[in-house]
């Protein structure tokens, strides 16, 4: 039997802020390739960075406030602003918009459930 206490619990990092990604310049953005509606690369790291940026954007109170009780209630203008903001960080094909909006919805739900 272990004598585990709260003081011994490993500290977690918490939510990411993606400060390096958000501070990138427009000319430094990288292209994300999609295959059958899913991001595939060119590297796993780039796909991971895209997912992390989506999570930080949806947690940004400048886009979605706590007054929005459902993703359907978020105005289309704000969703379009999020799409534009993501395109400032990555080069995305226009056909990827459906996937991006779906992932934004999932990220929004994950932040509200907890």
Describe, in plain words, how this protein is organized in 3D.
The chain has one domain. The chain has helices at residues 19-22, 44-59, 76-89, 97-113; strands spanning 30-31, 33-35, 38-41, 90-91. Helix 2 (44-59) crosses helix 4 (97-113). A hairpin with a 2-residue loop joins strand 2 (33-35) and strand 3 (38-41). The mean pLDDT is 82. It is mainly α and 114 residues long. The chain is built from 4 helices and 4 strands, in the order H-E-E-E-H-H-E-H.
Task: List descriptors.
114 residues; 4 helices; 45% helix; globular
N- and C-termini, Cα separation = 31 Å
Counting helices, strands and paired strands, the structural category is: mainly alpha
Low-confidence stretches: none
Number of helices: 4
Describe the biggest sheet? 2 strands, parallel
Strand order of the largest sheet: 1-4
The percentage of residues in β strands lies in 5-15%
Q: Structurally, how many domains make up the residues?
A: 1
Order of helices and strands: HEEEHHEH
The number of E-state strands comes to 4
Overall outline: globular
| Mean pLDDT across residues | 82
Q: Output the radius of gyration.
A: 17 Å
Provide the helix percentage. 40-55%
Outline of the structure:
This protein is mainly alpha-helical and 114 residues long.
Secondary structure layout plus pairing:
Layout: H1 19-22, E1 30-31, E2 33-35, E3 38-41, H2 44-59, H3 76-89, E4 90-91, H4 97-113
Parallel strand pairs: 1-4
Antiparallel strand pairs: 2-3
Helix pairs in contact: 2-4
């Amino acid at each position: 039997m272990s004598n585990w206490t709260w003081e011994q619990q490993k500290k977690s990092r918490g939510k990411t802020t993606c400060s390096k990604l958000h501070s990138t310049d427009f000319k430094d953005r990288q292209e994300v390739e999609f295959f059958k509606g899913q991001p595939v690369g060119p590297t796993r790291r780039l796909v991971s960075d895209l997912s992390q940026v989506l999570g930080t954007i949806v947690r940004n109170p400048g886009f979605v406030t706590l007054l929005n009780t459902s993703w359907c209630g978020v105005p289309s203008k704000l969703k379009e602003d999020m799409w534009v903001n993501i395109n400032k960080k990555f080069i995305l094909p226009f056909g990827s918009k459906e996937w991006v909006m779906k992932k934004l919805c999932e990220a929004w739900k994950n932040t509200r459930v907890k």
